[in-house]
Amino acid sequence: MAAKSVDTQKEGTTCPAVFKVNRRLIPAKLYYVAFFGGWACLLPFLTVYYRYLGMSARQAGIIQSAGQFVTLTAPTFGLLGDKLRNPKLIWIVSLLGQTLFSLLIGFAIKPNPIARQMDVYCNCNVSNSSKIDTNVTNCASLQFWEGEWVTFAELLSLVLAMQVMQGPTSSIADAYVLAILGDNRGQYGKQRAWGAAAWGVSAVGIGFLTDAISECGNTNYNIHYYLFGGMLALAAVIAFFVRADNELCQHEVKLMHSLRALMSQPDVVIFLYGMVLSGAVMTLVDNFLFWFLEDLGGGQTVMGLSLLAMCVGEVIVFIPSGWIIKRLGHHGAVALSLFVYMIRFVAYSFLTDPWYVLLIEPLHGFTFGLCQAACASYMSVVTTADIQAGAQTIGYGVRNGLGKGIGNVVAGFVWHHYGAVLTFRGAAIVSGVGGVLFWIMHLLLVYGLCVDVPKNELPPDEKTGLLNPDRSTTNEKDS
After folding, report:
1. Among 23-32, 131-140, 425-434, which is the least confidently predicted range?
2. What is the pLDDT of residues 437-465, one digit of tens each?
3. Beta bridge partners of 43
4. Which of 295, 293, 288, 277 is nearest to 413 (CA)?
5. Which of 112, 211, 212, 275 has a CA between 20 and 30 Å from the CA of residue 25?
């Protein structure tokens, strides 16, 4: 069946082909700008903010892990969608809910003065990288016992509530965008690149602003929450104007049906294993990299610039991601991202100057950007329209819920007891070995060495990994 370009639909423009832009994708692009621009002001800085409140690395790991596991409740929103038949309502409510609970984290919880004084003292006395692990471990232990457990409980409860609301947001948004793209799903990366660019600009801006308004040893985090709240409120307004084809709104979000359909395909199960592994190692970058940079003496400015470097890499990879997936296949793209994670973690373990992190962070384009595009694309090509939203929810839940939840528990424990260097090198081993096993299992399945797969059930193109012959990620016409 020939791929139908979304530009031929009546909602498109009549401009010359070279300037042709699908108007229906403009709200989606703006949504990605507002949503990811807002979260860039807060998400990467959450663990250092927990440290500011008096939490240890172990406590921060527990909080983040519990929050990630809670995102597995995202299917409950899908069950609600079965009744309401209105995924957009769930989308907007989830945006407003996570905004509310995040603002409560920022303004309702006050730092523990005893633990904060000890944290500032320990940071001021870390003079070189050889002392970081011992000093940070001692400081973290002292903070753990001196910290107020009531603050920990309050923070944990608000983070759990925020993550419950955040659970369905990305999966529903991506389902709408993929429905607009139709058979041009390979263009997903070009839409998502707008969010990556906004993330980089916001991160640099918030880093400079925070350093400008903060006094030595006392970072002012209020600006993070002000900008976050405003940007996510704007994203909720923009989401109302994202219009998908009728098929997305007419079909129920059948979570259990989606799960059964996905788990019945062995190659999909292998792919979901890759998502768990990717989420587990990704959490070390998301939640503990800035903690490490702070120990090396880095401020909010270098943190913001590191996020900009990440986003430059994301944009560079997102734009040709459809072409890369076409050449490597979805499983090959995920395997490549895991191997690049190995390189990235090894590089972190040798850092002694926080500014050198700027040379490493462009690899984020492969470790996150390529894997993100592969996940969204794969879940759309292996499912039919009636379970696509549910499949996207499951894919995100496995990666961002189960994977990140496991990663946070392990990373927080290892970091607390063995320090940053050994944690990064251990993560490099997990990424490399896990990536090799992931790729071997996929090849054994495809070539029939492990299980008996009838030839007529193999992908029509083993290089692309597409399981449905009527779907394609190779059309490059839409923008």
Report:
1. 131-140
2. 999 999 888 776 544 433 333 343 333 33
3. none
4. 288
5. 275
pLDDT band at 199 (very low <50, low <70, confident <90, very high): confident
What band does 352 get if pLDDT is binned at 50, 70 and 90? very high
Residues 6+ apart with CB under 8 A from 264: none
* Whether the Cβ atoms of residue 346 and residue 428 lie closer than 8 Å to each other: yes
- How many other CB atoms are there within 10 angstroms of residue 190's CB atom? 22
Q: What is the pLDDT of residue 192?
A: 84
Give the number of other CB atoms < 10 A from CB of residue 146: 16
| Model pLDDT for residues 238-278, shown as the tens digit of each residue | 999 988 765 444 444 455 666 676 777 888 889 999 999 99
Return d(Cα 470, Cα 463) in angstroms, integer: 16
Secondary structure string (H, E, C) spanning the chain? CCCCCHHHCCCCCCCCHHHCCCHHHHHHHHHHHHHHHHHHCCHHHHHHHHHHHCCCHHHHHHHHHHHHHHHHHHHHHHHHHHHHCCHHHHHHHHHHHHHHHHHHHHHHCCCCHHHHHHHHHHHHCCCCHHHHHHHHHHHHHHHHHHCCHHHHHHHHHHHHHHHHHHCCHHHHHHHHHHHHHCCCHHHHHHHHHHHHHHHHHHHHHHHHHHHHHCECCECCCHHHHHHHHHHHHHHHHHHCCCCCCHHHHHCCCCHHHHHHHHHCCHHHHHHHHHHHHHHHHHHHHHHHHHHHHHHCCCCHHHHHHHHHHHHHHHHHHHCCHHHHHHHHHHHHHHHHHHHHHHHHHHHHHCCCCHHHHHHHHHHHHHHHHHHHHHHHHHHHHCCCHHHHHHHHHHHHHHHHHHHHHHHHHHHHHHHHHHCHHHHHHHHHHHHHHHHHHHHHHHHHHHCCCCCCCCHHHCCCECCCCECCCCCCCCCCCCC
Q: Strand pairing partners for 215?
A: 218
